[in-house]
Write a structure and sequence with these properties.
This protein is α/β, with parallel strands linked by helices. It has 3 domains: 134 residues, 2-Layer Sandwich (Beta Polymerase, domain 2), CATH 3.30.460; 166 residues, Orthogonal Bundle (cca-adding enzyme, domain 2); 74 residues, no CATH class. It has 22 helices and 8 strands. The chain has a 6-stranded mixed beta sheet with strand order 3-4-5-2-1-6. A two-stranded parallel sheet has the order 7-8. It starts with 15 loop residues before the first helix and ends in a 9-residue tail after the last helix.
Length: 427
């Protein structure tokens, strides 16, 4: 599974530590480096991202210390402010949240910093910058070399199994960074894919959501399926139709469709997830009800429009189904359009962007309370049918005002009464 070229500058080995510190800008940290013990070292993602020049404005900082990290975290919180949270009391891990920053502290695992780094997941995460020596990059596993070659290399097979979430994290990191999986690492992931079934669903979903948001997320989600990392949560084999739809969920396709950055950031990950996981799978992974509903409705409409050109089938829906489609997908319609041909997809997108379009953003023509009071009718299933009738009339351009809605409601009630389906009157 080849990866795209990484963004950002890869530094040369000479001067790597100094350049990383320059990019980390410790003078901006909510705590000065001198606030930590002299043996403390910055490790993990912040070191990697500094070397790649892809740090955010307030990067998460991970530090290892020799002693009790939980006690140190609480002490720093009392002295400098912020909130301390115990992450793992047994392994002495805690987090200090201060000034919009997150600083994780962990007791060193092993009798030296190098021993701690040998217990980590991937070599690019197994580098450290000692706070007391800004000219030293501790890199016992050639992580800098792998940054330069844009390869993701596991530290050891046993390290992946120490926390099987690391199997999935490998693909997530490759997707986010545009790296390739080193062949031996890929073999280990495939060989031990079943171990991920024992990982808490929330942790798995967090990695999948990050992967779905990665620049080439559709490629790496397909890789997850190829390596069987999602097998514990899929009830059926991956279909050709799912694979084809997932391949359409690319950033290039979103740009061609005309999605703006905000729409892409929200709806492209949703479309990708919906083509690899269904509602029951997301329930097992303990996702939010909102995400489950979004995925279920999107998949239902994909299935309803399958077996031919989805745009043609969508425009051939009867009025009731067409209205239901837009009610179901009012907030996420572009996720459905990604697999459509350009002309109908762009036409639908243009209408969806118009918040006043009565079909693409259906709204009640009149509220139920007004109908009850004006026409003297009681709450009932018939009232619900009447409200839906008026919404449909408005959505398809046959109703334009409140007065017209009341007139049509009277006609509908008269017709229902004539047919012997009298709506109940209020007492």
């Amino acid at each position: 599974m080849p990866g795209a070229a990484a963004d950002g500058a890869i530094v040369n080995p000479a001067g790597a530590a100094e350049l990383a510190w320059q990019r980390l800008q410790p003078e901006r940290w909510p705590l000065p480096p001198e606030a930590f013990p002299s043996e403390a070292a910055l490790v993990g993602g912040a070191v990697r991202d500094a070397l790649l020049d892809r740090l955010g404005a307030a990067p998460d900082l991970d530090l290892v210390v020799e002693g009790d990290a939980v006690a140190l975290c609480k002490q720093l919180g009392r002295r400098h402010g912020g909130s301390s949270v115990v992450l793992d009391a047994e392994r002495s891990m805690a987090r200090l949240v201060i000034g919009g920053w997150s600083i994780d502290l962990a007791r060193r695992d092993g009798d030296s910093l190098e021993a701690d780094l040998h217990r980590r997941d991937y070599t690019i995460n197994a580098m450290a910058l000692p706070l007391a020596d800004r000219q030293q990059l501790v890199d016992p596993l050639d992580g800098l070399t792998h940054l330069q070659s844009q390869q993701l290399v596991a530290v050891a097979e046993t390290n992946l199994l120490d926390d099987p979430l690391r199997l999935l994290r490998g693909l997530r990191l490759a997707g986010q960074l545009g790296f390739a999986l080193e062949p031996g690492t890929e073999r280990w992931i495939q060989q031990h894919h079943a171990a991920i079934a024992g990982v808490a669903g929330e942790r798995v979903l967090a990695e999948l959501e990050k992967l779905a948001a990665a620049p080439s997320g559709e490629h790496w989600l397909a890789g997850c399926l190829e390596l069987r990392l999602l097998a514990p949560w899929r009830s059926s084999p991956w279909s050709l139709e799912e694979a084809q739809r997932l391949s359409c969920c690319s950033a290039a396709n979103a740009e061609q469709l005309g999605l703006n950055p905000a729409e892409t950031n929200t709806l492209l990950p949703l479309a990708r997830l919906a083509n690899v996981l269904d509602g029951p799978a997301l329930y097992q992974l303990r996702s939010s009800r909102k995400l489950q509903k979004q995925v279920v409705t999107l998949r239902q409409w994909q299935q309803r429009l399958s077996g031919g050109d989805p745009a043609v089938q969508a425009e051939a829906l009867d009025e009731n189904e067409r209205l239901q489609l837009h009610r179901d997908l009012e907030d996420s319609l572009p996720a459905l359009l990604l697999s459509w041909s350009a002309e109908p997809a762009q036409r639908w997108l243009q209408r969806w962007r118009d918040s006043d379009d009565p079909l693409f953003h259906p709204k009640p023509a009149i509220d139920g309370r007004s109908l009850q009071q004006t026409l003297d009718i009681a709450p009932s299933p018939a009232l619900g049918d009447l409200l839906m009738h008026l919404m449909r009339e408005q959505a398809f351009g046959r109703l334009h005002s409140r007065e017209e809605a009341l007139q049509q409601a009277k006609q509908w009630l008269a017709s229902a009464e004539h047919a012997g389906e009298r709506a109940p009157r209020r007492d």
